[in-house]
Amino acid sequence: MNIENIRLINFRNYKSLDIDLNRNMNIFIGKNAQGKTNLLESIYMCATGRSFRTNRDKEIINFNKNQAYIGAKIRTGNLQKFIEIKVDKNKQKRIRVNKVELNNFRELNSGLNVVMFSPDDLKLIKGGPIERRNFLDMSISQIKPIYKHNVGRYNKVLYQRNNLLKSKKSRDEILNLLDIFDVQLAKIGTQIILYRQQFIEKLSKLAEKIHNKLTLDKEDLNLEYISNVDYKSIKDKINLEKRYLSQLKKTVNRDLAIGTTEIGPHRDDILVNINNIDARSFASQGQQRTIVLSIKLAEVEIIKEDRGLYPVLLLDDVFSELDEERRKYLTMSFNNMQTIITSTDSLLLEELSLLDKSIFYIENGNVIKQ
């Protein structure tokens, strides 16, 4: 799959942009704060319907403007799709695929898959559990659209249950109503847990192989799915649902006392180990970068296996952060997929001189093709 054209109007610092992209490699060179990451953000939104930088869509609108527009022509195999996203300060975000309007971003199944690697991805290691849950949700949603729908439903029911726990209703009334929410949470939450468990198992195996190559077999990487729902001893969906429901019942008194739900995938995490040691506590900056690179390249392979096509790889100012061996390994991946790279360093062009590519220079939202 590849992006053939991207058009932006009043998106961040881009007043107007219309460029055709190389089906192999595209390099955008520019100083900091010129719009390089903004461009990658617009592409990411065409794949997921959401920004990776903010939950407030209106922040993408150019200063003193009321609307922003993203249009992208993509090709997946023999099929071409046209994705459009319109954000208005006074209206709901609108998304269209081939001129057909969607009800919300969760319906977006554009056929465009992306894997993003940026310096901020080090939060996958050092950040809190929410960073790793967000990574899981965005990654799984790209290959299993129903998963995105389930997460939305789960969060809605969870919000209603937590409001009930905080309400001034009598204890008996709350307990009666909780039964309704608990059944829904257990049913939807079980599906989320099973999807996450399967994804992390596959991701861990692939990332371990890649990490071994990157470290010359000096380090073993392992990813472990952590959930407070006891899933490890149960293999089938029905019994896991029963276990989940049972745990909700056992913790109801504590939930009432603190006014929130303790049990469920909203508390999930990923344990990242290097040579059986928790990477969050002991990994150096260089080790963290190598771990994230291994995870991202493993995600690329999962998408290829599931969709039959490689995703578009988005690299935001990461080349300068990697040592020579890591850069060489990453470069080897470029032959298989469309890659869009941003950098402040034009010396990068020397390393990639033999590859088919288009080169663009960015300054203050203006893009010039070399």
UniProtKB/TrEMBL annotation:
Task: Report the domain of life of the source organism.
Answer: Bacteria
Keywords noted in UniProt: ATP-binding, Cytoplasm, DNA damage, DNA repair, DNA replication, DNA-binding, Nucleotide-binding, SOS response
Q: Name one GO cellular component term.
A: cytoplasm
Q: Which CDD domains match?
A: ABC_RecF (cd03242)
SUPFAM superfamilies this protein is in? P-loop containing nucleoside triphosphate hydrolases (SSF52540)
Q: Which InterPro entries match?
A: DNA-binding_RecF, DNA-binding_RecF_CS, P-loop_NTPase, RecF/RecN/SMC_N, RecF_2
Q: Name one GO molecular function term.
A: ATP binding
The subcellular localization recorded is:
Cytoplasm
Q: Which residues form the RecF/RecN/SMC N-terminal domain?
A: 3-352
Identify the residues that bind ATP.
G30, K31, N32, A33, Q34, G35, K36, T37
What's any GO biological process attached to this entry? double-strand break repair
Q: State whether keyword Cytoplasm applies.
A: yes
NCBIfam families linked to this entry: recf
Q: What does this protein do?
A: The RecF protein is involved in DNA metabolism; it is required for DNA replication and normal SOS inducibility. RecF binds preferentially to single-stranded, linear DNA. It also seems to bind ATP.
Which family does the UniProt entry place this protein in? Belongs to the RecF family.
Descriptive protein name: DNA replication and repair protein RecF
* Source species: Keratinibaculum paraultunense
